[in-house]
Amino acid sequence: MAAARGLGRGPYALQAEIAQCHAVAPSVAETDWGRIVLLYEILGRVAPSPMVELNRAAAVSMAVGPAEALAIVDEVERAGALRGSHVVPSVRGELLARLGRASEARTELLAAAELTANTVQQAVLREKAAGLGAE
Question: pTM of the entire structure?
């Protein structure tokens, strides 16, 4: 309705559109990651937050690659808004692992495990860290 009146889409409509992209994709590989990146870029202008940026980084990693996504995550880390949270080192660890930087990835994943109180998350993060081969 707002778009029809020329007011643009609000954050909930953008989030719904992102969810729809995931829901209609036949597989992860066939997901329209480029569209999801664009939607997160718009959402970041409408309702900026470090979590939106991390989600955009995840989409960028799928659309373009982990190196470009890592630059976004590093900027979120520099901003410091999520300092003390496990999410930044967790995402960094995943991206570093995809880049073949196992030692750095392991360090990030273990740091993330220390920062979360959720024992299931701790176990998953530690298992991922342990599963990384040597560089």
Answer: 0.87
The phi-psi region of residue 13 (left if phi > 0; otherwise alpha if psi is between -120 and 50; otherwise beta) is: alpha
* 53-74 tens-digit pLDDT: 999 999 999 999 999 999 999 9
Contact 62, 27 (CB under 8 A): no
Q: What is the pLDDT of residues 82-130, one digit of tens each?
A: 999 999 999 999 999 999 999 999 999 999 999 999 999 999 999 999 9
Nearest by Cα to 72 from 43, 95, 103, 97: 95
